[in-house]
Specification:
The protein is α/β, with parallel strands linked by helices. It has 2 domains: 146 residues, Rossmann fold (3-Layer(aba) Sandwich); 165 residues, Lactate dehydrogenase/glycoside hydrolase, family 4, C-terminal (L-2-Hydroxyisocaproate Dehydrogenase, Chain A, domain 2), CATH 3.90.110. 44% of the residues lie in helices and 17% in strands. The strands form 3 sheets. A 6-stranded parallel beta sheet has the order 3-2-1-4-5-6, with helices on both faces. A 3-stranded antiparallel beta sheet has the order 9-10-11. Helix 4 links the parallel strand 2 and strand 3. Helix 3 packs across helix 11, helix 6 packs parallel to helix 7 and helix 7 packs across helix 12. The protein binds 1,4-dihydronicotinamide adenine dinucleotide and oxaloacetate ion (OAA). The site of 1,4-dihydronicotinamide adenine dinucleotide has 32 residues, from helix 6. It catalyses: (S)-malate + NAD(+) = oxaloacetate + NADH + H(+). This is Malate dehydrogenase. InterPro entries: L-lactate/malate_DH, Lactate/malate_DH_C, Lactate/malate_DH_N, Lactate_DH/Glyco_Ohase_4_C, Malate_DH_AS, Malate_DH_type1, NAD(P)-bd_dom_sf.
């Protein structure tokens, strides 16, 4: 298994004086730079396309371990006003991140049929750690949105690495669980025969199996379902990632719907950075709302990240039970991450 201990000895790419210069330089630069880490991948490419179309982005930084020149050249011909820059390989990671206001990370391995998300930990822990360490050097005040699985464990790993680098601000770190909300809205709209955009539903907990908890009791419009119908709908939402993995039959997991979900989440961060009020998203963040240290719930976003972790939505008895049933798994997955960084 990859040793996180070794990681700590990877030298900081930017010396202190360079960092100070960079921070000053970023301060006088205008606009919002968004860095996509893993930009050449199945999620990274369509996500980068959607961000190129977002008028709130002024600079789009595309980084991957493989060459991103072609993707950047291609996107740069789209007639929207943001600039697109290509970065790849270890040496260019710091450059990709410098002055970024938002760093969104779809880097890492996806599942194959028969795998659990937790089985991606060995492959993806190092990716997340490398990015976290580089962020602490290059853009410590950026908002960080991690898509990489297993989200339940990756986010605690990133928090631990940032703590070691003295750069952890819980308000700025997010695990992206937006796809769970997107799916819940879609499946409920299908049942009700209405526009998915008219559905509002919180999805709390984490992003794996039973830790994904859609609160059907809080759905707007109201759902009139019996217990069996509710259980079926909850399972459909919880297993939706696996549904895509099976359908892709070895060619990866959700990419296009994830790109849509991440573009929506990043747009909310951008709106909050621009001081738009009342921007609320469900995300997996450090939390004291449950017995788990990291927990997905609705958060109020502001220019500095999380302005307020909103109270847990109300739950019916079945949802309370599902919450109790999932906490053990969620806590174990969090602990796995903390242990990995410590050992
Ligand atoms: N949070 C969520 O709801 C979802 C999360 N995911 C996760 O997103 C991740 C990416 O999925 P896909 O885009 O389908 O995979 P992919 O394999 O198509 O793309 C991953 C990209 O990451 C790059 N990469 C790997 N290591 C890197 C490093 N150290 N630095 C920079 N780039 C690196 C690869 O070169 C590749 O271009 C997976 O872990 C997957 O499980 C996928 C769907 C939903
Ligand atoms: O299922 C996977 O491995 C990818 C993912 O997290 C999702 O689609 O929700």
């Amino acid at each position: 298994m990859f040793s996180l201990k070794l990681m700590r000895h990877v030298s900081a790419v930017s010396p202190l004086s360079q960092l100070k210069w960079n921070l000053w330089n970023c301060g006088i630069r205008r606009g919002v730079k968004v860095a996509v880490i893993g930009a050449a991948g199945g999620i990274g490419q369509p996500l980068s396309l959607m961000l190129k179309l977002n008028p709130l982005v002024t600079e789009l930084s595309l980084y991957d371990k493989v060459d991103t020149k072609g993707i950047a050249a291609d996107l740069s011909h789209i007639c929207t006003s943001s600039t697109v820059r290509s970065y790849f390989g270890k040496k260019q990671l710091i450059g990709a991140l410098e002055c970024a206001s938002i760093v969104v990370v779809p880097a890492g391995m996806p599942r194959k049929p028969g795998m659990d998300r937790s089985e991606l930990l060995d492959a993806n822990a190092s990716v997340a750690s490398i990015v976290a360490k580089a962020v602490s050097n290059a853009c410590p005040t950026a908002l960080l949105a991690f898509i990489t699985n297993p989200v339940n464990t990756i986010v605690p790993i990133v928090a631990e690495v940032l703590k070691q680098e003295d750069a952890y601000d819980p308000k700025r770190l997010f695990g992206v669980t937006t796809l769970d909300v997107v799916r819940a809205k879609t499946f409920i709209a299908e049942l009700l025969g209405i526009d998915p955009q008219a559905v509002s539903i919180p999805v709390i907990g984490g992003h794996a199996g039973k830790t994904i908890l859609p609160l059907l009791s809080q759905c707007d419009p109201k759902l009139e379902l019996d217990s069996a119908e509710k259980a079926k709908l909850v399972s459909r939402i919880q297993d939706a990632g696996t549904e895509v993995v099976k359908a892709k039959a070895g060619k990866g997991s959700a990419t296009l719907s994830m790109a849509y979900a991440a573009a929506h989440f990043v747009n909310s961060l951008l709106r909050a950075i621009n001081h738009e009020e009342n921007i609320i998203e469900c995300a997996y963040v450090q939390s004291d709302l449950s017995e788990a240290e990291f927990f997905a719930s609705p958060v109020l976003l502001g220019p500095e990240g999380i302005e307020k972790n909103l109270d847990l939505p109300e739950m019916d008895e079945e949802e309370e039970q599902r919450l109790e049933d999932m906490i053990g798994q969620l806590n174990k997955e969090i602990e796995d991450g903390v242990k990995l960084v410590a050992c």
